[in-house]
Amino acid sequence: MSQNPSNDAGRRKPLHFNAFVMNTSSHIHHGQWRRPDAGQTEFNDVNTWIDLAQKLEAAKFDAMFFADVSGLYGDADADFDVYVNEGLQIPSNDPTVLLGALAVKTKHIGLATTSNVVQNHPFNFARQLSTLDHISGGRIAWNIVTGVQDNGARNYGLDALTDHAERYRWADEYVDVTFKLWEGSWDEGALLKDKENGRFSDPSRIHKIYHEGPRYRVEGPHLPSPSPQRTPLLFQAGSSASGRAFAARNAEAVFIIAPSPAVARELIADTRRLAVEAGRRPEDIKFFPGLSFIIGDTEEEARAKAKYYDEYVSVDGYLAHAAIVDKTGRVYPPDTPLAAVDTNTMKGFTEWVSKHITDREPVVADLAYLQAQNSRVVGTPEQIADKLEEWQDAGVDGINVINWVIPGSFEEFADKVLPVLRERGLAQTEYAEGTLRRKLFGSDHLNERHPAAAYRGAFAAGPQSWVEADALRAGVTSTA
Ligand SMILES: Cc1cc2nc3c(=O)[nH]c(=O)nc-3n(C[C@H](O)[C@H](O)[C@H](O)COP(=O)(O)O)c2cc1C
């Protein structure tokens, strides 16, 4: 679908801006934590995050987006010295827990956490996010990830990272359980708080879900009552064929790393096409590339700053982060041609990079190069605004702003770039009222085209015991 980024008056539509962060010292731009102005070394201190969240809210960022991992990157059995030396996502703290603190210290900004299907049982996870959605007044988003680390899988009792296609089947069942709990278990009006008649809730409007699948058996009901959004806003970040199909069915926002607006355009068009095939509309999914900015009042100043940032670059760090392992968990050397890579990890990212480097043989080190160089925009606020217009013309709806240092990168972006973007209509000046989903899509709840909506009101007429549930499933199986 072609996007029309301008409104009737010819002004640009605002892009959404997320601050992309991680509860650790070295997230994306490795080595920068050594800079004197880098505050991310103090990530254990909750005030680092509260201060940042409040600054971002004052600047009208749409959301704070926390990445997360379940273990270490790299070779499954090699030493992990490089990660520890670099502070590369170890030590790191749980973002979902942190959101509880940020929720009470902010009022408007969206709060997105990343959680891998391996790390938490869906019943417990659904309860945690409902609780956070209550605490925050409906500002929670979930970045659904399936994990990319062997070590992350081994931390949860598996021998190795689950096969790529199977990970997405796992994610399908995982989200299915959460959708049943969030959307179907409690009907509207079930919560009474009727002091006179002594009825807290209405049992006829609260349902067990009797979910049974290959990995999970969950009876329900959901323990929390419905939170403002019920289902949190759903982010996703995979871009392989299975990843795009999963996003097309389930995601409301997709985080992409694209080497150029042209590649983003292709990826977006394809995912939107798949969304339509899945019964949704192209505009039901918003796309966010990750970009970082080096901002100068003049071009010379911006270039000089880039040189200074480069002095702190850790090549070892970028290579270690981009390390791609084969299916037995062994790291490919950086000069391995991408055509020779057979991986279970970042399949989509690897495929899209190989497809779009056409002037030479793409190699594993190009993945590190892309993170380090291609995602950065160096220039004056006006030049940055021009670049963002190019991304918007390619169909993106917002930007995940990747930081070099905390809080400086976001302060600079807020002070220097956002005013120029606002003049062009490219950034919001005020928050819209209501939940995060209402701010982005105009309604508190998932729209009726989303698969989770099918569970609304579905369980009153459904099975009322495991015996009935099993019989129903057996019937469905035998007629299938
Ligand atoms: C931009 C981007 C950000 C991601 N962030 C995370 C993350 O924070 N935690 C995580 O476990 N995986 C993360 N991933 C991994 C994806 O969720 C996914 O598991 C991976 O890309 C493999 O899926 P694919 O082959 O479909 O792309 C990210 C991937 C991309 C492209």
TrEMBL record:
Keywords: Flavoprotein, FMN, Monooxygenase, Oxidoreductase. CDD domains: Nitrilotriacetate_monoxgenase (cd01095). It comes from the Bacteria. Residues 33-397 form the Luciferase-like domain. The keyword Oxidoreductase applies. The keyword Flavoprotein applies. Belongs to the NtaA/SnaA/DszA monooxygenase family. This is LLM class flavin-dependent oxidoreductase. The lineage of its organism: Bacteria, Bacillati, Actinomycetota, Actinomycetes, Micrococcales.
